[in-house]
Amino acid sequence: MEILPILKILSRNRTTALLVILEIALSCAIICNAVFIISNRIAELWIDSGIVEDELVFMTTSSLLPDVNHDALRRQDIEALAAIPGVKAVSSVNQIPYGDNVWGSDVRLDPERVRPSTHASLYMDDGQLMRTFGLQVLEGRTFKADEYLENSAFDPNKIGPSVPAIILSRSLAQSLFPDQSAVGKIVYVWGEKQPPSPVVGVIEDVIAPGAPGTFGQRYHTMIFPIRVSNGNYAIRTAPDQRAAVLTAAAKALHRTDPNRIIEQQDTVEQMRKDFHRRDRSVIWMLASVCIALLAVTAFGIVGLASFWVQQRTKQIGIRRALGATRMHILRYFQLENFLLSSSGIALGLLLAYSLNMLLMHFYELPRLPLAYLPVAAVLLWLLGQLAVLGPARRASNLPPASASRSV
């Protein structure tokens, strides 16, 4: 049985062995959490926004005139933009996925907040939002013509008419009314002074603007039939016409109001890329850290094994002279590495869980799935065996005669 002799030799070199174990443990802990963070960031890159991103462009404008009639200007802008060749639909919007504006409201099932409530992102519909974003009604209906309000005539902080009707995303509807239809139910939104509003429809999920964690759930969104006049426009066109439409749209808006500034004009696809720039940077940084740690760990194992082969040349020669085969010598060093790796991995898995708890507390990272632990263990075991293979093969190739003459 080779384990006991290996343990005796390691006990005589405990400092070196402990350093290797600690190196493997730290690599295991860091790599587990780094790969988990990478997987979360990659999932963010591929998350479905729920809108027709490849057909949308977005413009933000502001007028320099102090007394401009914003409602009238909005109507002129919409008419001018809709007349541009290639434009399928135009909507004046308060916010857009991956944009800087973030609008939200409390959603309550009763005015006293006795029953569960949540916080949701809200989109304002001027009558063309659904068509512009490419949203589909799953249940119920869209807004009626007499349900639309001008934003300038609506103050959520004063007692007055409620939001005439509300459309919920599927995720928000299921959260508020599990196992039942949300259509026909009433909710309290946007200010404690507002009367309840009826839910008239449910749409497929559309993502909320803002970073993850801005709202309890990324798809907790709703739509109000309120026309905003803040100079933000979403324009839907064919994917290959977006650049031309943006250029024509800027000219059209300057014709309706020469005293205006166009603060932003971009495709939604580019806005999404800019929004996820930090995620991509984190992915590349953590991937580099993982590769560096694996390389350092592998070189450490190679260096240690090479050192021990050199130190044990005489011992190896004696074993060969006594009948040990090359396979016996190779298996000896692989088993020794396996014991060191196993000790480091066991400690590393405990450190990985502890590190994840710290990240959950300080950075709101989700809990580390247990499936990551055995994957990391197998990866480090394989790395250890591959790293020790070279020095072990050199040891197994030592001739018995020359090895026994070494000091």
* Order of neighbouring strands in the sheet with most strands: 3-4-10-7-9-8
Globally, the shape reads elongated
Low-confidence stretches: none
End-to-end Cα distance, whole Å, is 27 Å
Overall SS class: alpha+beta
In N-to-C order, the SSE pattern is HHEHEEEHEEEHEEEEEHEHHHHHH
Rounded radius of gyration (Å) = 32 Å
How would you describe this protein?
With 407 residues, this protein is an alpha+beta fold. 50% of the residues lie in helices and 16% in strands. It contains 12 helices and 13 strands. The protein has a 6-stranded mixed barrel with strand order 3-4-10-7-9-8. Strands 2-12-1-13 form a 4-stranded antiparallel sheet. Strand 8 and strand 9 form a beta hairpin. Helix 2 packs across helix 10, helix 3 runs antiparallel to helix 6 and helix 10 runs antiparallel to helix 11. The longest helix has 38 residues. The radius of gyration is 32 Å and the shape is elongated. The two termini are 27 Å apart. The model has no long low-confidence stretch (mean pLDDT 85).
Please write out the topology.
Layout: H1 3-12, H2 14-45, E1 56-63, H3 70-82, E2 87-92, E3 104-108, E4 118-124, H4 129-133, E5 137-140, E6 149-150, E7 166-169, H5 170-176, E8 186-189, E9 197-203, E10 221-224, E11 226-227, E12 232-237, H6 242-256, E13 260-267, H7 268-275, H8 277-311, H9 313-321, H10 326-363, H11 372-396, H12 400-405
Parallel strand pairs: 4-10, 6-11, 7-9
Antiparallel strand pairs: 1-12, 1-13, 2-12, 3-4, 3-8, 5-9, 7-10, 8-9
Helix pairs in contact: 2-8, 2-10, 2-11, 3-6, 8-11, 10-11
